[in-house]
Structure formats: structure tokens, C-alpha cells
User: Which sequence fits this backbone?
């Protein structure tokens, strides 16, 4: 049995009196694609944000490559975040930079690479997501799907060990979802380790190595797509899956 | 007619030219220093820890809250009491920069607050430290948003630079005062001085417009009147 790339143990987060996460644990092996599903407010987003400490968990520990992450140490935290790429629902491209500069800036400012070398790499990454001809455009000139692909290129340029995707297609027009899914599918085929929150269960079940159903701050049930969608043990999982299947189309 | 013309040629023109030059020498460094102070204080007011934030807020309260003339009097007439002697010119630049900086910081603060949280989350998720994030991601956007307000403050500065003559730094207005009290031609002299300020502020707003155009990028346009 190989050791997990990312180990998340007992992560809890409280906002005031509300427990948003109640002890979520998760082991991610190399090449895994874990899909988080569940109703809004279930804690999917908070869990993802806790994993790279954009939200500081109240409790819990995280290991990357068997090394525990001590996030109170700034240097460790910044080094860790470089290895954990994050994709946001609303893209969050840097609005004042072109597509190329968006992809390049992390390599230059964080990794300390030379501008020319980082630029070449940025062009490669943009080519990979099919946006080389748009690299001189600013975010305001790109479609939602293109923005999300730039943000994926930006994360990839940092050579992450793991990618976290927080509902990457939820803010997109239906006809733009496909282009982003194609890029994510391609990543998966190339062995990228990913944790993704999504409502697109058709896409999820065709790719996922494991589906985790979250509700009320807990991971209620986990298993293969077939198990979760067709033979779920938990009544809430069944109910959620049948509703979401109705909404987001056939799985497969 | 010839007498009046002679007066303008031999007295008014050289004096106003001299004063105009002094005014420019006051305005240019004060504008740059003021902007630098404003950016620094604005950033500290938003991203500083609690004591730093409190200090920056106090700075603004003081230098925005006390009339500029009073501030100039303190720098020039007050400081000698504790053994610090500033030249009229230096006291003026100091007073203008601090006051202007306090106002600029307010524009910068507003612009910083307008930057969406997602920009910061994205920078942090790439491994940016807070300082790098502020300088590479936040400020380049915030300054673009603050530019119209900051430009306004620079126009103000051009006008309140006329207060320097109150602490014996004889700039444009000071020269005018001397000319007018010698010749009693108050109307003529001060109309000319008013025109000089109008030229300065007009040129400044053209330059500021150019800077805005230069920094304009898609997504950061705003209509100009």
C-alpha cells in the first residue's frame, strides 16, 4: 500500500457558534480524483479552503508527502501552498494582468524564476489549456470558460502536487462548462491528484476515484461512483443523489 | 498705458516668474512625497496590525484635522522653541507632504477596500506572502482605482501651496502680495496670479489624464468627464 500524498485528519472549523466542519478526514493517493458532493452549506468549500489554510482550521492536522504542515510557520505555509493548487468558483484571475502575466506572476514573484524562463513556461501552460492565442488578453476580455482555463494554467505553472477545485464550473454558462471539463479530464488522465467539489455528477462519476457525500460539516458517506449513486447506504445520500441527477442530467 | 505696460514688464513679470518658479519647486516634491506617504499610510491602515493601524489612523486624524496654516506655523514658528530650525521652504514642503499624504491615504484606503477578496485568496493560494501580495497584486489595482481621487488632491495641493508665503516662503502668491502692497494694483496683480494658478492646475489635470490613459487596462476603465 502506497502512502497518501495528502492526509487530512479531523479538520474542524467553527464560525461563532456554528460548526461548519465537524472533523473531516481524508487520505488522497497519487493520481486520485476525489469528488466532494453535497448540498450548499455542507462544508465542501470550507474543507477545501482549510486544506490550503485560506481558512485556518480550529482543529485537525494535514500531511503532504508524509510531512506535517505547520501552518503557523509562514515559510512552511507559503512553501506548502505552492504545492497545492487552488481553483475557485469565480476564477479570481488577477484583473490587472494579461492571461500570460497571470500565469507568470507566481513563478516570478513566489518561486523567484527569471521573467523569460517563467514566460516560456507560462506560454506552454496556456497552450496546454488551449489559450495560447489569447495570452495577451486581460481577464475582462475573456469568457468565463477561458478565465477558468487560465486559472488552471496559473495553478499548473507552480508544479503542484495536488489540485483543489472548488466548484470550477458553477459560475459558467452551460455551453462553456465542456471546455473546462475537458481540461480537468486531461489533467486526470495525466495523473494529477485532485480534490474537487462539484454538482456536475455526470462528469464526476465518469472520472472520480471516490465520491464523498458531505452534509452538515461531516463526510457522511464515501465510495466509488457506482456505490454512491446506485447503492448508497445512507438515506440522505440517496435522496441528494436522486435530486441532483434529476437536475444535472444523466450520469455516465 | 505705456506706464502700466512698463510696470508689468519691469516689476510684475520678473517677480511673478520668480514666484512661479518657487511655487513649482514647492509643489513637485510635495506632490510626490505626499503620494508616497499616502500609499504607505493607506496600506498600513488596511493591512497593518492593530497598533500600526491605530498609529496610521491617528496620523490621518491629526494631519487632516488641523488647518494647514496652523500646521505650517507649528513647523516654522513652533519647532524653534525645541531647538529645531527649518527653512521656510523645507517647512512648507514638510507641511504640504504630510497633509497631502493624509488625504491621499483616504483615497488609497477606499481603493484597497474595493479590491475583491478573491484576488487575495488567489494570491495566497499561489504562495504569495502578504507583502508580496500587497505590492504585486493589490496595489497595482488599487492605485488605478484611486487615481482620480489622488489627482484631485494634487490639484488641491497646487492651490494650497499658496499658503507657504504665510511662513515667509515667497512663492507666487507671496510675490503678488509684495507687488500689490507697493503699487496698490491689487486687482490687476491678483488677476494675473489667479491666471497663473489656473494654468498650473489645467496643465496638471492634462498630465493626470495622460497618466490615467497610460495606466488604463481593460476592466479598469472609468468614464471621464
Assistant:
Amino acid at each position: 500500500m502506497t502512502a497518501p500524498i495528502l492526509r487530512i485528519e479531523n479538520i474542524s472549523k467553527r464560525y461563532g457558534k456554528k460548526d461548519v466542519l465537524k472533523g473531516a478526514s481524508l487520505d488522497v493517493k497519487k493520481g486520485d480524483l476525489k469528488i466532494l458532493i453535497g448540498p450548499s452549506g455542507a462544508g465542501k468549500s470550507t474543507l477545501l479552503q482549510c486544506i490550503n489554510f485560506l481558512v485556518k482550521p480550529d482543529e485537525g492536522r494535514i500531511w503532504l508527502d508524509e510531512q506535517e504542515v505547520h501552518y503557523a510557520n509562514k515559510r512552511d505555509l507559503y512553501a506548502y501552498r505552492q504545492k497545492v493548487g487552488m481553483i475557485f468558483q469565480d476564477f479570481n484571475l488577477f484583473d490587472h494582468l494579461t492571461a500570460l502575466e497571470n500565469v507568470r506572476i507566481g513563478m516570478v514573484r513566489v518561486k523567484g524564476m527569471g521573467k523569460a524562463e517563467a514566460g516560456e513556461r507560462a506560454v506552454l501552460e496556456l497552450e496546454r489549456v488551449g489559450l495560447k492565442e489569447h495570452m495577451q488578453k486581460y481577464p475582462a476580455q475573456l469568457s468565463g470558460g477561458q478565465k477558468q482555463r487560465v486559472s488552471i494554467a496559473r495553478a499548473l505553472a507552480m508544479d503542484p502536487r495536488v489540485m483543489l477545485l472548488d466548484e470550477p464550473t458553477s459560475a459558467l454558462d452551460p455551453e462553456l462548462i465542456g471546455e473546462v471539463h475537458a481540461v480537468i479530464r486531461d489533467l486526470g488522465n495525466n495523473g494529477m491528484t485532485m480534490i474537487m467539489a462539484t454538482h456536475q455528477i455526470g462528469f464526476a462519476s465518469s472520472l472520480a476515484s471516490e465520491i464523498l457525500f458531505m452534509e452538515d460539516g461531516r463526510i457522511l458517506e464515501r465510495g466509488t461512483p457506482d456505490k454512491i449513486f446506485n447503492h448508497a447506504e445512507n438515506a440522505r445520500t440517496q435522496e441528494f443523489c436522486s435530486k441532483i441527477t434529476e437536475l444535472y442530467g444523466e450520469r455516465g | 498705458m505705456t506706464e502700466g505696460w512698463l510696470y508689468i514688464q519691469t516689476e510684475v513679470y520678473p517677480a511673478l516668474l520668480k514666484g512661479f518658479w518657487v511655487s513649482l519647486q514647492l509643489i513637485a516634491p510635495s506632490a510626490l512625497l505626499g503620494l508616497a506617504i499616502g500609499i504607505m499610510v493607506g496600506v498600513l491602515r488596511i493591512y497593518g496590525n492593530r497598533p500600526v493601524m491605530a498609529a496610521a489612523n491617528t496620523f490621518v486624524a491629526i494631519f487632516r484635522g488641523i488647518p494647514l496654516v496652523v500646521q505650517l506655523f507649528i513647523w516654522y514658528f513652533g519647532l524653534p522653541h525645541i531647538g529645531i530650525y527649518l527653512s521656510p521652504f523645507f517647512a512648507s514642503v514638510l507641511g504640504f507632504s504630510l497633509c497631502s499624504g493624509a488625504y491621499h491615504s483616504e483615497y488609497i484606503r477606499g481603493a484597497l477596500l474595493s479590491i475583491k477578496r478573491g484576488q487575495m485568496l488567489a494570491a495566497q493560494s499561489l504562495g504569495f506572502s502578504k507583502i508580496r501580495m500587497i505590492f504585486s497584486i493589490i496595489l497595482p489595482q488599487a492605485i488605478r482605482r484611486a487615481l482620480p481621487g489622488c489627482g484631485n488632491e494634487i490639484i488641491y495641493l497646487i492651490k494650497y501651496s499658496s499658503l507657504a508665503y504665510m511662513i515667509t516662503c515667497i512663492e507666487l502668491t507671496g510675490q503678488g502680495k509684495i507687488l500689490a502692497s507697493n503699487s496698490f494694483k491689487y486687482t490687476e496683480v491678483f488677476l494675473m496670479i489667479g491666471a497663473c494658478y489656473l494654468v498650473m492646475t489645467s496643465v496638471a489635470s492634462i498630465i493626470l489624464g495622460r497618466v490615467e490613459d497610460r495606466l488604463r487596462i481593460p476592466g479598469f476603465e472609468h468614464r471621464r468627464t
Notes: Chain B has eight helices and no strands.
